[in-house]
Write a structure and sequence with these properties.
heterodimer; A: alpha+beta; Aldehyde Ferredoxin Oxidoreductase,  A, domain 1; 3 domains; six-stranded mixed sheet; 13% strand; B: 73 residues; Ubiquitin-like (UB roll)
């Protein structure tokens, strides 16, 4: 096998069994790697009905075929399984430095089941793999744990760690690589916590890789790296980060404000935009492995109530989730709150979304001081968010921690009083920081049909609607107008296929949008030797989407669950999208018809499953 | 005639906020090209606070906010 190693590590924490398994090559061809291959492994080998926080739950980390190959944005890793936050299929992608090291150690992935008797850590040094005590790290923040692990083993050991939030089974707990790069979404930090697994450490001696056509790959790699580096969007993000055009997004109505109640706030745009972060707090750029873009931020806030030492800084999602979404335009506070979430181990998107919901509930009188244990939840009060709310959630302390630690939907169900009506989510996953009413109606559709719930990186639809990428070779060469439904179902089919390929090949959307479709195909062929054409590659993407849909069928989801809450669908009250209706039902029906999904059951038709070589899967659902 | 250009977000990379003297009949599309803003950026123009078609003619005294849709994630 080329590109991939064909090997995965099976770790059973109850029995202490660690063994190396091989996966059939046809799995790789059909499901690529990353979240797609993880879905296939989960479907075949996982206990699908296990509670996600039970020992039986399967937790999978999976590389893509290009991990470690020194190509910009191509060395991400996916974590996957059943999400404790949504109860549905979940996956989350992370950049950073874990994937290459795992590949060099000889593995495409790690499949973990069981629960250790005591706090533990998985240590991988090539074929020496062991579970050791992590008692000394339990209860500690990720920053300290990462530092101490590196002191103990060496700086070049790559780390994944959870914080107190993961230990305490907060349902939107994250997993952090190198104390900076996040598997943020869907709560897999809590799954690690439920297994008493505080950290995973990996180190390889060698850097050997098997590539089908090494010379051709080297030439292609150099060409693509230059193309990615030289692109205007890359340069812009290098200079000012992923929030480089946050202020522009405020004018188009893309940036959510105060729990999606507003779509325009000019002063906030200027205060939080990437250029302001560069001017005020940036000390240097950071990067994921091999990436020439280097969009990550390293920041320092010198003084004031939100002073924070030099270290990881916030990207776009964090700046908005812990900024305008909670009614704040204080960039220093977003830096500090983001850093705190990293240390405690909280997903900034779901944390911001849940806190924003609570602030609105407090404002409306739907929750009182009695419900919050005496904490006033006021719009924009970042001192309270940082000093009280986030620590209470991560440690599940007091009434407030108990109320908010399971996410906005669970909290709203507990409170009642129609507070569910102002949650902003799909399938229980809090929406990311692009409001589809201004960001694009196609985004509303792709948020809704995304298997893991409201997600802006499940597909490249956001970039397709804003005109940042075109794919003429596969028919996407037309311009989309964001705030209409025109051509959106058709574009969404392409977006779903491409997004499934990206998240399976573990590519970064900021880098791969500079690569043409024929070049994507070339990459698979020269690295893995698949001999694919465009059609075969797109079919793999479609298959990945289908198997995740089948998984959600097992969890009881139907077509009606492909939805967004009214908060994100009702016409905007102000800003550029003011008063505009989204033709959601029309887009969804057309999308189902184009992609052969049953409009009631929400699963691919038997015929299309058979056409995609998924007859065995079809038998389990039809 | 005189107009005021107000670049927003990443468009600040290509232009400074300023008042400029322009020929009558200028459109936002032409202005964007004249400022050297790369054609690959999908642009919108807000004149005196309202989004207008890029081919509409600008008028004396207009405040023109230039915005691109391209954003990060």
């Amino acid at each position: 096998m080329h590109g991939n190693t064909g090997k995965i590590l099976n770790v059973n924490l109850i029995a202490g069994e660690i063994r190396v398994a091989t996966l059939p090559e046809e799995y790789y061809r059909a499901y690529i790697g990353g979240s797609g291959l993880a879905a296939k492994v989960f479907w075949e080998l996982g206990d699908l009905n296990a509670d996600p926080l039970s020992p039986e739950a399967m937790l999978i980390f999976m590389n893509g075929p290009f991990a470690g190959l020194k190509l910009s944005g191509a060395s991400r890793n996916s974590v996957a399984g059943r999400s404790p936050l949504t109860g549905c299929w979940g996956d989350s992608s992370c950049g950073g430095y874990f994937a290459p090291e795992l590949r060099y150690a000889g593995y495409d992935g790690i499949v973990i089941t069981g629960k250790a008797n005591a706090p533990s850590m998985l240590v991988i040094e090539d074929d020496e793999v062991r579970v050791v005590s992590a008692a000394e790290y339990w209860g500690k923040g990720i920053e300290e744990v990462t530092r101490r692990i590196k002191q103990r083993y060496g700086k070049s050991y790559r780390t994944l760690a959870i914080g107190p939030a993961g230990e305490n089974l907060v349902k939107y707990a994250l997993i952090l690589n190198e104390g900076h790069h996040a598997f943020g979404r869907a709560g897999f930090g809590a799954v690690m916590g439920s297994k008493n697994l505080k950290a995973i450490v990996v180190k390889a001696k060698n850097r050997d890789m098997s590539i089908a056509e090494p010379k051709k790959y080297e030439a292609l790699r150099k060409e693509l790296n230059s193309k990615i580096k030289d692109a205007l969007a890359s340069q812009v993000m290098h200079e000012n980060g992923t929030a480089a055009n946050l202020e522009g997004g405020v004018y188009t109505g893309d940036v959510p404000i105060r729990n999606f109640t507003s779509n325009f706030w000019a002063e906030m745009g200027e205060a939080l935009t990437g250029g302001t972060l560069t001017e005020r707090f940036l000390t240097k750029q950071g990067a994921c492995a091999f990436c020439a873009i280097a969009c990550k931020r390293v920041v320092k806030v010198e003084e004031g109530p939100f002073a924070v030492s030099e270290g990881p800084g916030p990207e776009y999602e964090t700046i908005v989730a812990l900024g305008s979404l909670v009614g704040s335009m204080d960039l220093a506070a977003a830096c500090k709150a983001g850093r705190l979430c990293d240390d405690l181990g909280l997903d900034t998107i779901s944390a911001g979304g849940t806190i924003a919901w609570a602030m609105e509930a407090f404002d409306r009188g739907d929750i009182s001081l009695e419900d919050t244990g005496g904490v006033e939840m006021r719009w924009g009060d970042m001192e309270t968010v940082i000093n009280t709310v986030l620590p209470s959630i991560a440690r599940k302390e007091g009434k407030l921690g108990a109320l908010l630690a399971d996410g906005s939907v669970a909290a709203a169900k507990r409170i009642g009083k129609r507070s569910i009506e102002y949650t902003a989510h799909s399938k229980g996953l809090e929406a990311p920081m692009h409001d589809p009413r201004g960001g694009g109606h196609g985004l509303a559709l792709t948020y809704a049909v995304s298997p893991r719930g409201a997600c802006h990186v499940a597909t490249p639809m956001l970039f397709m609607e804003m005109g940042a990428c075109y794919y003429p070779e596969i028919g996407f060469e037309y311009e989309l107008e964001p705030m209409t439904d025109k051509n959106k179902p058709e574009a969404a089919v392409t977006a779903v296929e491409l997004g499934s390929i990206e998240n399976s090949a573990c590519l970064c959307q900021f880098a791969d949008r500079e690569i043409s479709i024929p070049e994507w195909v070339d990459l698979f062929n020269v690295v893995a030797g698949y001999g694919w054409d465009m059609n075969e590659m797109m079919r793999s993407g479609r298959r990945v989407f289908y198997i995740k849909r089948l998984m959600n069928h097992v969890y009881g989801l139907k077509a009606a669950d492909d939805n967004l809450t009214s908060r994100m669908m009702e016409p905007a009250r102000d800003g550029e999208p003011k008063g505009i209706e989204i033709n959601f039902t029309g887009m969804k029906e057309k999308f189902y018809s184009l992609i052969d999904i049953d409009p009631e059951r929400g699963i691919p038709t038997r015929r299309i499953l058979e056409e995609y070589g998924m007859s065995e899967e079809a038998k389990r659902v039809w | 005639m005189k107009i005021r250009i107000i670049p927003i977000g990443l468009i600040k990379r290509f232009a400074d906020e300023r008042e400029i003297e322009v020929e009558a009949g200028l459109t936002s599309r032409k202005l964007i090209a004249d400022l050297g803003i790369p054609a690959e950026l999908k642009m919108v123009s807000f004149v005196n606070g309202t989004r207008i078609d890029l081919d509409n003619e600008l008028r004396d005294g207009d405040e023109v906010r230039l915005v691109t849709l391209v954003t990060g994630g």
